[in-house]
């Protein structure tokens, strides 16, 4: 479905590119939304008009209802705009379908054993049709795995995936870091902070908690927009991650 393709896949995959001002990602989203407004106009005129008025430029029609109807192409899919230098857009779309199928199977495998996506795993084994390194990197990112053992599928059949669910101490520590990062980002959101708001973190925690933060200090500062992390007693919010307890205040 279009909404699923756009919202839960393209936008999520392109979020960082858009935030960083990537021209290709921004122009692709702009084109999609303007075209969507035109298609919606006969069925949802007010919603379509609101989208159009927020996006139109000086050369566009004053109203979406005065704009030209989009020209139909043989096969138009916005995933084709994800640039891998692979030639025809149909090939890109077909490869991405395979990638998304693998990701879906991998997420189902995680769910069956009760392991969250934020918890990194070491290995994913795949039996599927040929995919280049660019697509393998997407799979690794989506399923949060360090390595992919890839077996080329020779006969037609169902794609198979197998997850190595052993969680080493190193992987567990990284999983705890990701949980902490999510909680800190939620704190920023709940406090109504904007990307221009740089904060100082006051943290009260155990030695194990301090060790975790020190290991990933640079990543935390960059992602949560923190200038300094201080280990001190405070009256902030509690964050519990398994056996680790953090009391955190953003100032």
TrEMBL record:
- Cross-referenced InterPro entries, in alphabetical order? Ile-tRNA-ligase_type2, M/V/L/I-tRNA-synth_anticd-bd, tRNAsynth_Ia_anticodon-bd
Provide the Methionyl/Valyl/Leucyl/Isoleucyl-tRNA synthetase anticodon-binding domain boundaries: 2-122
Q: Which GO terms describe its molecular function?
A: ATP binding; isoleucine-tRNA ligase activity
Q: Which domain of life is it from?
A: Bacteria
Its keywords, alphabetically, are: Aminoacyl-tRNA synthetase, ATP-binding, Ligase, Nucleotide-binding, Protein biosynthesis
Q: Does the keyword RNA-binding apply?
A: no
GO BP annotations listed: isoleucyl-tRNA aminoacylation
Official protein name in the record: Isoleucine-tRNA ligase
Q: Please tell me the species this chain comes from.
A: Candidatus Nomurabacteria bacterium GW2011_GWB1_43_7
């Amino acid at each position: 479905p279009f909404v699923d393709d756009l919202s839960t896949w393209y936008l999520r995959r392109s979020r960082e590119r858009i935030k960083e001002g990537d021209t290709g990602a921004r122009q692709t989203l702009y084109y999609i939304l303007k075209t969507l407004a035109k298609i919606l106009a006969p069925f949802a005129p007010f919603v379509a008009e609101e989208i159009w008025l927020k996006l139109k430029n000086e050369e566009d029609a004053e109203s979406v209802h005065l704009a030209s109807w989009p020209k139909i192409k043989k096969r138009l899919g916005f995933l084709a705009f994800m640039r891998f230098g692979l030639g025809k857009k149909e090939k890109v779309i077909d490869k991405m379908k395979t990638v998304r199928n693998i990701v879906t199977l991998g997420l189902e495998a995680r769910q069956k054993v009760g392991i969250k996506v934020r918890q990194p795993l070491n290995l994913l084994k795949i039996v599927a049709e040929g995919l280049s390194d660019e697509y393998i990197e997407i799979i690794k990112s989506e399923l949060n795995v360090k390595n992919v053992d890839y077996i080329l599928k020779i006969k037609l059949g169902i794609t198979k995936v197998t997850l190595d669910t052993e969680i080493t101490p190193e992987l567990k520590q990284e999983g705890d870091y990701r949980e902490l990062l999510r909680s800190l980002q939620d704190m920023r959101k709940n406090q109504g902070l904007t990307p221009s708001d740089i904060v100082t973190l006051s943290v009260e925690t155990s030695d194990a908690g301090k060790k975790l933060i020190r290991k990933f200090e640079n990543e935390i500062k960059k992602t949560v927009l923190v200038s300094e992390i201080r280990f001190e007693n405070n009256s902030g919010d509690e964050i519990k991650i398994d056996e680790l307890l953090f009391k955190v205040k953003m100032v």
